[in-house]
Amino acid sequence: MQKKRLILNSKYLLLLVVLSFWAIRPLFQPGFFPMHDDTQVARLFQMAQALSDGQFPVRTVSGLGYEYGYPVFNFYAPLAYYFGAVLNLVGFSPLAATKLMLAFGLIAGGIFSYLLVKKIWGKAPAILAGVLFVYSPYHALDVYVRGAVGEMWAITFLPLLFWGIYKIYLREDNGWLPAALGLAGVILSHNLTALILAPFLVVLLIAQLPKSKHKTSYLILNAKFIALALGLSAFYWLPALMEMSLTKVVGQLGGGADFRDHFVFLDQLWASPWGYGGSAAGRLDGMSFMVGKIHLILACLSVVIGFSALAWPAFFILTLVCLLMTNYISQPLWQTAPFMAFIQYPWRYLGLASLGLAVCASYLAIKLKWPIIAVIIGIAILYNQRYFQPQTYLAKTSADYTNREELIWHTSRISDEYLPVGFPVPVTRQDVARSRLEVVSGQVNFYSQNLRSNRQTFRIEAIGDSRLQINTAVFPWWQVFLDGGKISYSVSNGFILADVPSGTHFLELRYISTPAQSLADVISLLALIAIVVYAVIPAENRDFCAKIRRWVRKNTKMAPTSRLELK
Questions:
Q1: Mind spelling out the 3-state secondary structure of 449-504?
Q2: Helix intervals (H) in 344-386
Q3: One domain, residues 110 and 194
Q4: Whether residue 504 is found in the same domain as residue 538
Q5: How many whole angstroms separate alpha carbon 182 and alpha carbon 163?
Q6: Residue 113 and residue 130: Cα distance in Å, rounded?
Q7: Model confidence over 237-283: pLDDT tens digits?
Q8: Which residues contact 136 (CB under 8 A, 6 or more apart)?
Q9: Longest dimension (CA), the chain
């Protein structure tokens, strides 16, 4: 019976993947297309280079940040890029790996939605929910207009998280695993989506508590998945929070990203012109904020039919609140809560609303026969696939995005907010240093160099005492070594100055993890071990308390029913 159920589920999931084809079809065209955040191929390539250098977790890359050592993945959520970088390392070109990274995010979101709704209402609604979620207009906006890979991946993990939470509510002990992986996936994909999610998650878990028959078990399982998710993702979020002040990113809040300029009008949720421009104040937006007419119609019909136990009202409320948070009506809340400024754009809530709408709309399939559901799915795909198209195709290859000139100048200018505070950002191409090592005083002969993302080595000969400038942005994780011994250095205009005595030397710049990074890495490793122990090792083999009890019984004369027995 179990095998038959598994085969049947596999067929439905395969059907869902096939139905997703029209959402990802443009990704398999030659070349690539322009997007707002046109750094995706370069970031993926740099992640792969850092992994090949032996850096893990990857925190800094060598080619971006004007080639001054850019700690982008210490602050920017890295999960999608790990996925793409692994594809690059196993043989896919950086451009092909980027396309697969985008395609996987869309398809996985549909699969997770299927698993969530199948647990709530069954297979037919699950297929409908998966299709509607994949073909949400906001997904098309993220992929083909904005290039918001991290946000798209974070939205992908939302249904996995809610699937686990619902399993916990149903007293299924294994619910903690998808919940933990889902929450960790959101955090590691896009920190702003995690910030948006947090209040909803807290309210949902508290609201379910009175309805739970076994409150202690409910609290333990929820605490377990939250702790494991935070622990698993700690290698990213802990250093990012503790070391963000080292960069100039906080000082860039506001301006063009002031939330007051980016509220959405209610009629724009129903219909707004599809474009490839940006968000602007008032109605002058160059891009659309539609949530999908088919999605809205089906969701409204589901309201007429009625609610279902727990899940339907929860997702209905989630959708309604998220849509209201995009509108001017929520401005007092935005102004009251200081952390809301980090979200920047109220329309980011459309990601969470897209999942809510897909789940709400799928409730309708409970009352319908398969032929009618098939017609609805066909109409939804036919109507929404037109949004899953780029503005144009560019005849570009991987080399166009990963050559040195593109990396250190054009791509670096797009995103340089993680350079140190006060760092002299180049204004023209000529301002970028042409070598990693420069002589400030004295005379030095250079024999060889080996440049990696986490280690730079130079073989030099100093003719008399000399001073060298290492053209790497100063962060506390960089340490200088001379002939294997650590030496102190000074800082001038954002760069490292090292004094070397006369003679032939081996000069080295190493990445040494900060205390915050080392602590975070240990926490994540322990969380990963705990997840493997709980998920892979059978319960009877990891019940250490039971082993202790058996040992005590065997080596003492205490009766098994004694009150002194270990609990």
A1: EEECCCEEEEEEEEEEEEEEEECCCCCCCEEEEECCEEECCEEECCEEEEEECCEE
A2: 350-362, 370-384
A3: yes
A4: no
A5: 9
A6: 5
A7: 999 999 998 998 765 554 456 788 899 999 999 999 999 999 888 88
A8: 291, 292, 295, 354, 357, 358, 384
A9: 87
Alpha helices in 69-190 (DSSP H): 72-75, 79-89, 94-120, 123-134, 137-140, 149-169, 176-189
521 with 506, same domain: the answer is no
**CA separation for the pair 508, 490 (Å, rounded):** 15
Residue with tokens 């474009």: 275
Q: What's the structural domain count of the chain?
A: 3
Give the predicted TM-score (pTM) of the model.
0.91
> Beta 503-511 vs 478-482: how paired, if at all?
antiparallel
CB 441 within 8 A of CB 412: no
pLDDT tens per residue, range 402-436: 999 999 999 999 888 899 988 888 888 888 877 88
Residues 327 and 342 occupy one common structural domain: yes
Residues 6+ apart with CB under 8 A from 1: none
For 346-368, letters b (16+ CB in 10 Å) and e give bbbbbbbbbbbbbbbbbbbbeee
- CA 170 – CA 160 distance, rounded (Å): 16
Tokens of 120: 């709530």
Same structural domain for residues 244 and 178? yes
Answer yes or no: is 337 within a domain. yes
Q: What are 281's two structure tokens? A: 């104040």
Rounded CA gap, 466 and 439, in Å?
A: 8
In a domain, 415, yes or no: no
3-state secondary structure of 435: coil
